[in-house]
């Protein structure tokens, strides 16, 4: 099987449902940014320390869920043959909220903004948070033009919070302090 189709040679690509769109289309930008995030999560898994290896199973699950998100974002609004994978029944956002709560209980309370960084794992998780936010912005831009699966947006929104909480917990596991932003006034009470 050949992996090239030559469709892209003219700046276009085919999505689920057989619509052909320019690669600059907001739909392509949306699931492309989710794909980029998925790749970054793979890099994070490959570079986990012995102390942060506890994240591997859930990060692998997140990769699976991100692929589902990308699939749903790639389904044309004109497609009547394919159904969304991501549904409210699965409660993926709830799963992330439980993880966020769990990690938030294991880290020092913060009152000020913190800088993204710390240990290698924490720094990578903070990067994943910012890539998630960009993916979210791309998805919202698509949403403003055509319908999408709302459950994908809900999951992606919660995922950035997960990466923040996981980054802070990774610093705890690796014995590294969060770095407070020096000009921050107390904002979290």
Automatic annotation (TrEMBL):
This is Corrinoid adenosyltransferase. One of its GO terms (molecular function) is corrinoid adenosyltransferase activity. InterPro entries: CblAdoTrfase-like, CblAdoTrfase-like_sf, PduO-typ. It is an enzyme of class 2 (transferase). Residues 3-170 form the Cobalamin adenosyltransferase-like domain. It comes from Companilactobacillus mishanensis. Keywords: ATP-binding, Cobalamin biosynthesis, Nucleotide-binding, Transferase. Belongs to the Cob(I)alamin adenosyltransferase family. NCBIfam families: PduO_Nterm. It catalyses: 2 cob(II)alamin + reduced [electron-transfer flavoprotein] + 2 ATP = 2 adenosylcob(III)alamin + 2 triphosphate + oxidized [electron-transfer flavoprotein] + 3 H(+); 2 cob(II)yrinate a,c diamide + reduced [electron-transfer flavoprotein] + 2 ATP = 2 adenosylcob(III)yrinate a,c-diamide + 2 triphosphate + oxidized [electron-transfer flavoprotein] + 3 H(+).
């Amino acid at each position: 099987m050949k992996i090239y189709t030559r469709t892209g040679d003219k700046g276009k690509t085919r999505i689920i449902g057989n619509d052909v769109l320019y690669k600059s289309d907001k739909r392509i930008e949306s699931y492309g940014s989710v794909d980029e995030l998925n790749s970054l999560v793979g890099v994070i898994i490959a570079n986990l320390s012995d102390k942060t290896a506890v994240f591997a199973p859930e990060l692998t699950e997140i990769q699976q869920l991100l692929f589902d998100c990308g699939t749903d974002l790639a389904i044309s609004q004109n497609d009547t043959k394919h159904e969304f994978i991501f549904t409210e029944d699965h409660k993926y956002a709830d799963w992330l909220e439980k993880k966020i709560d769990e990690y938030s209980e294991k880290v020092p309370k913060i009152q000020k903004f913190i800088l993204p960084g710390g240990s290698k794992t924490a720094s990578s998780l903070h990067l994943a948070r910012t890539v998630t936010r960009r993916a979210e912005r791309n998805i919202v831009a698509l949403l403003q033009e055509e319908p999408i699966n709302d459950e994908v947006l809900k999951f992606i929104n919660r995922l950035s919070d997960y990466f923040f909480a996981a980054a802070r917990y990774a610093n705890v596991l690796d014995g590294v302090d969060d770095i407070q932003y020096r000009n921050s006034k107390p904002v979290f009470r």
